[in-house]
Specification:
Bound molecules: zinc ion
Helix content: 40-55%
Strand content: 5-15%
Largest sheet: 3 strands, antiparallel
Number of helices: 4
Shape: flat
Strand order of the largest sheet: 1-2-3
Length: 115
């Protein structure tokens, strides 16, 4: 499949929607619900972990009391940035059924009572 293309109408989804709403977002072209396929997610997460490992091993030594946290911080930032960028570049979309609306108003109305 093409990168960030809706399988139904071939509209290219925006990068931000693909990365921010990976599980469920609405296609701008046809209005159907889309999700990022598992293969794209696994690829992005795996490359993010690799980038985090590289960043952790190449972090400069920090001579302070919280110096141990610097490699962890570098690894976390590298994982977050790289996995999101990989997902932006390689996301393969699939159609999902529209989620059923949750009865939030009904549930909150029944729980009114003395506290
Ligand atoms: Zn579409």
């Amino acid at each position: 499949m093409a990168i960030r293309k809706c399988p139904a109408c071939l509209t290219t989804a925006p990068m931000g929607a693909v990365v921010a709403f990976t599980n469920n977002f609405v296609c701008a072209g046809c209005g159907q619900h889309l999700a990022v396929s598992e293969a794209s997610r696994v690829l992005a997460a795996a490359l993010g972990i690799v980038a985090g490992y590289i960043a952790m091993s190449t972090a400069p030594p920090a001579y302070s009391m919280l110096g141990w946290a610097v490699p962890v911080l570098f690894a976390l930032l590298a994982y977050g940035c790289v996995s999101a960028l990989i997902l932006m570049a390689t996301a393969d979309l699939r159609l999902i059924p529209a989620p059923t609306p949750t009865p939030v108003a009904e549930a909150s109305a029944t729980h009114h009572g003395p506290h």
